[in-house]
């Protein structure tokens, strides 16, 4: 396989990029100044080297602990539970949420062999249980897909047992769509109108 | 609704062509294995976006070809509801490419966002000799019948059904992996939500259409009564329960009570995936399951009745006169049933009819008015 083919294939592995777009990207880089390609390569290199999960919430960070968890102004009694760090960014962009996060790293999907032990659920329970016992309310912000809903139902059961108040993002988010595609204002509304489970 | 034009490209053995159909329809006459059924398969493909014979798309591409393409121009008839924007016609096209395995569906040259958006635009009902399986085969065949009819007539049904199927397969996987556990039971509220919606759609349709079914069947069979009813996969569901709340409650209880058994068997044993559309003969005097007790002729009448009911559903729910596609149907019926079916069609079906027959003698529908085409080696002879 030629080098060009190889890079094209790497690009087309990315979500939303088909073989045609991948080819266009490669040829764009080849036409541009060598520095442009090097800059991209360096950025990618440090991205994978330096970004790691926050030891508390699982959010992306370059340090041990992420900026949200370190921020003394955040309300430590409320935790917004999301499937991935991507959704942390979506919720942060609304500017409506002052609490902390917990990233599950996926959702329940028995068909794919994903059970509770494959998600960061023990860590969530620990945050509710020990430490300062700070977490009073969990806002379940998993996606409104079948798997996201089931994950929320499951979390509700086990968090309730720990005495945590559990709320769910209100509808307003179109059923069947991923949070990824929901615009900020819809998400902000859903956040404000979260409901008791 | 009628099909004005069909453009064929590399579909099965059919020669590439642009066929203009007369408003009242056409009879395609020719020996077997010339491509008569392939023509109806092509037309019905544009309605459901797959082969009615269950053939995979790759088998539909002409031998040695890479892409097949079908394009139909449909026109609303006099009393039909117009298309969006008040337009009287619409072009539906479907193409499938072997290399890449991609299906592309367009409505008026705009690709549909989801494949499901391209379904049901021809308003066609297909009659084939294989319809007898609707009566003779297991319950899944009648559930599929319900699913197709409801998907084509009730907005929201297909989405509810797809969601139900997805939750169901997740719960079954959870039952096998997790046994009794909170993560297994977490799927139940979702199953209740989607499953009760599916059940209510089905129950309401049966409730609305049951009388028409009895009437249609009486006309074809010459007096024998028949009845259809839902034998729900939710045990304890009160008969005639058509409200979402009541159905949800019944399904919730049924699932809870089935938990032990479901865990033991590793599968979900209650819910609409266990529904049976019961078809009964002779109501009143000890109704009997036509599948087990019906004669050949009775079973055929009931199967025919289901197709005519499908047409009636399109008429009522979508406000359009359906296009009837009949694949060598009369050959299978005895003389008396044929005559009564013809009589019924003459009185109720005022739309376009495209039918096939092996010999001229088999064409009895609209003898006088209907145009005849021949077919040889996949070439339509006009
Ligand atoms: Zn953090």
Short description:
The complex is a heterodimer of chains A (about 200) and B (about 375). With about 200 residues, chain A is of the alpha/beta class.
List the helices and strands and how they pair.
The complex is a heterodimer of chains A (197) and B (382).
Chain A: H1 3-12, H2 19-31, H3 34-50, E1 52-53, E2 60-61, H4 67-70, E3 78-82, H5 85-94, E4 100-103, H6 121-129, E5 137-140, H7 146-160, E6 165-168, H8 184-192, E7 195-196
Chain B: E1 2-9, E2 17-20, E3 25-29, H1 36-48, E4 67-75, E5 89-97, E6 102-107, E7 110-111, E8 124-127, H2 133-136, H3 139-153, H4 157-178, H5 182-185, H6 188-221, E9 226-231, H7 244-265, E10 276-281, E11 288-289, H8 290-293, H9 296-318, E12 323-327, H10 335-348, E13 353-357, E14 371-376, E15 379-381
Parallel strand pairs in B: 3-13, 3-14, 8-12, 12-13
Antiparallel strand pairs in B: 1-2, 1-4, 4-5, 5-6, 6-7, 9-10, 10-11, 14-15
The structure holds zinc ion.
């Amino acid at each position: 396989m030629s080098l060009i083919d190889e890079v094209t294939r790497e690009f087309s592995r990315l979500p939303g990029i088909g073989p045609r777009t991948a080819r266009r990207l490669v040829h764009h880089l080849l036409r541009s100044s060598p520095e442009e390609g090097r800059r991209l390569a360096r950025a990618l290199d440090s991205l994978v080297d330096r970004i790691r999960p926050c030891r508390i919430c699982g959010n992306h960070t370059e340090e041990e602990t992420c900026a949200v968890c370190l921020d003394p102004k955040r309300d430590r009694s409320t935790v917004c539970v999301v499937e991935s760090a991507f959704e942390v960014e979506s919720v942060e962009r609304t500017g409506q949420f002052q609490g902390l996060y917990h990233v599950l790293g996926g959702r329940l999907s028995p068909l794919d062999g994903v059970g509770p032990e494959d998600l960061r659920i023990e860590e969530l329970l620990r945050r509710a249980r020990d430490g300062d016992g700070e977490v009073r309310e969990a806002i379940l912000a998993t996606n409104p897909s079948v798997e996201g809903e089931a994950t929320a139902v499951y979390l509700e059961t086990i968090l309730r047992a720990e005495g945590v108040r559990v709320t769910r993002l209100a509808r307003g988010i179109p059923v069947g769509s991923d949070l990824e595609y929901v615009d900020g204002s819809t998400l902000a509304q859903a956040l404000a109108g979260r409901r008791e489970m | 609704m009628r099909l004005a034009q069909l453009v064929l490209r590399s579909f099965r053995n059919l020669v590439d062509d642009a066929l203009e159909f007369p408003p009242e329809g056409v009879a395609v006459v020719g020996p077997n294995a010339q491509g008569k059924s392939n023509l109806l398969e092509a037309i019905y493909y544009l309605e459901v976006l797959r082969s009615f014979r269950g053939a995979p798309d790759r088998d539909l591409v002409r031998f040695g070809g890479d892409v097949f393409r079908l394009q139909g121009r449909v026109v609303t008839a006099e009393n039909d509801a117009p298309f969006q924007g008040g337009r009287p016609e619409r072009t539906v096209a479907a193409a499938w490419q072997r290399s890449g395995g991609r299906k592309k569906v367009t409505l008026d040259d705009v690709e549909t966002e989801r494949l499901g958006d391209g379904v049901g635009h021809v308003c066609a009902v297909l009659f084939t000799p294989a319809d007898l399986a609707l009566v003779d085969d297991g319950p899944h065949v009648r559930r599929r019948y319900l699913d197709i009819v409801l998907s084509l007539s009730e907005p929201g049904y297909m989405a509810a059904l797809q969601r139900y199927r997805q939750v169901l397969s997740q719960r079954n996987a959870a039952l096998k992996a997790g046994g009794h556990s909170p993560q297994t039971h977490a799927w139940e509220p979702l199953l209740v939500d989607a499953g009760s919606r599916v059940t209510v759609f089905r129950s309401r349709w049966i409730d609305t259409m049951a009388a028409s079914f009895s009437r249609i069947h009486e006309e074809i069979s010459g007096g024998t009564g028949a009845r259809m009813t839902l034998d729900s996969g939710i045990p304890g569901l009160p008969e005639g329960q058509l409200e979402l709340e009541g159905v949800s409650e019944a399904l919730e209880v049924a699932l809870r009570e089935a938990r032990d058994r479901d865990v033991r068997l590793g599968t979900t044993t209650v819910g609409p995936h266990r529904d049976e559309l019961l078809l009964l003969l002779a109501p009143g005097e000890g109704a009997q399951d036509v599948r087990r007790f019906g004669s050949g002729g009775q079973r055929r009448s009931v199967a025919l009745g289901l197709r005519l009911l499908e047409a009636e559903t399109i008429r009522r729910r979508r406000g359009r006169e359906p296009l009837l596609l009949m694949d060598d149907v009369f050959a299978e019926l005895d003389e008396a049933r044929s005559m009564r079916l013809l009589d019924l069609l003459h009185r109720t079906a005022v739309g376009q009819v495209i039918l096939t027959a092996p010999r001229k003698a088999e064409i009895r529908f609209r003898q006088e008015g209907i145009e005849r085409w021949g077919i040889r080696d996949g070439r339509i002879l006009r």
